[in-house]
Prephenate dehydrogenase/arogenate dehydrogenase family protein (Oxalobacter aliiformigenes), 592 residues
Amino acid sequence: MVPFKKIVICGVGLIGGSLALALRKNGYKGRIVGLERNREILSRAYALGIVDDAGSPMDETFRGADLLVLSVPVAQTGNVLKMVMPYLSAEMVVTDTGSTKTDVIAVAREVLAEKIDRFVPAHPIAGREMNGPDAAVDDLFTGKKTVITALSENRKDDIEKIAGLWEQCGSIIHYLSPDDHDNVFATVSHMPHLLAYGLVDYVANHAKSDLFFQYAASGFRDFTRIASSSPEMWRDITLANRAHLLTEMDAYLEELKNMRDLVEKADGPELEKIYANARRARMNWLNTIENSESKK
Amino acid sequence: MVPFKKIVICGVGLIGGSLALALRKNGYKGRIVGLERNREILSRAYALGIVDDAGSPMDETFRGADLLVLSVPVAQTGNVLKMVMPYLSAEMVVTDTGSTKTDVIAVAREVLAEKIDRFVPAHPIAGREMNGPDAAVDDLFTGKKTVITALSENRKDDIEKIAGLWEQCGSIIHYLSPDDHDNVFATVSHMPHLLAYGLVDYVANHAKSDLFFQYAASGFRDFTRIASSSPEMWRDITLANRAHLLTEMDAYLEELKNMRDLVEKADGPELEKIYANARRARMNWLNTIENSESKK
């Protein structure tokens, strides 16, 4: 059972919208109210049945609410928190769905000040390259991990409530420190996004662009799928996770430089060793983690 | 109608095997004989119904054959051609399915010498990350392009026969010069393979490898799908297309270095511009080329 009676979701796009749909599907009986800077998106979410109420004045939106979920681009966290501060009741828990945690926590500490204890940071590891309420689906989190990066100030009770919220959506709860979280996702998510965006931009700006795109096929399609993600959202994530991203990029660029030199030297055995190691590691990952999770 | 009576396929793995299955499915009534250095693979292809005959002596394999298809890793082209040279009858057409063309043509010229006119180089743009006869499927080429990089020595008749072979498998015929072919595929296929192999190898060798793999999700899975491809085959392609690969890698690494510096400078607007340009170009490619082709 979801331990909340009325949930305000700020940002009813892919993640916020999917959370609402998943809660409904899994038996949540309370109210879900949407909050959006963009009225059109809010109306669309209402029309799609994602939220029960949309566009009410702030005091009405927050009346009786016991959970606020921030599901906005991470760079907007501070502004949104400032805006909602006057409406946060003493019982209300606040959480987020941001792809980066250190920066979100820093800004939350600044804005929430002594109320920081009620902010339980979380990150559901799920997504699609589409965005907006029309992209929301009720099984986005099923069998996927949600990482909670709890603060020392958090009450045990509140952490359990947020864990319960995501478990109700079919998600598996993991706990990481904010720094480990940001390092992990810099490597396995943020950097690949940057590489994919970079490759498509490179091809698009090439003198032979039309010829290249003409023959791009399924390998290119899958490699660059994430380059169809929201540029605004990924700009924010890139900047928010700058430190880890730079460390990982510099190390990966070093590896690419080494591979480039192996190509120049026509060093077949060393290249094959790298390819074979990658293939083996990927197969092992698929068998032990990725596929077992997808089956849940 | 396929304009051949007896086809010898040398290499009955994913591509060679799928060609045989596609020909059968689309009404080819002639014989298909397999040729393989590895007896186990040949037996497996025979058991799967991919070839009508397997393991006969060379003179019997080639008796009455009017087409030889080379579907082996590109680096083996020379050795295979030397081995089959004594059995090439005057009427026989030779073609290949290699992912690189300049190097394959160079070695074919050397080995075939005055018989080079009968070698019509081709490259079906289709694949899966699995390999071997068990990965072969009868619709691998349906709606996909096959690029023919014809030689000035080729007879018009022979080029049309090879075009007919692939059209019978549902493929759409394109013509490119060998150099344009190799430049295109260095950029949209070979380099992405190298980047994907490199990323998985990087993660696998990282001190936090276990933690990273634990949280790798669908973005990472799609980005690295091609890193499950055959290391031997991709070693050969990398070496065969070295010149174009180095040119494109150096230019792309330049772009990545620039993006890395934008991250360091926290230049949000410039990063967003690159992301947005990539997203727009990819959407445009999906809408005008990739999706329209998939529907065929």
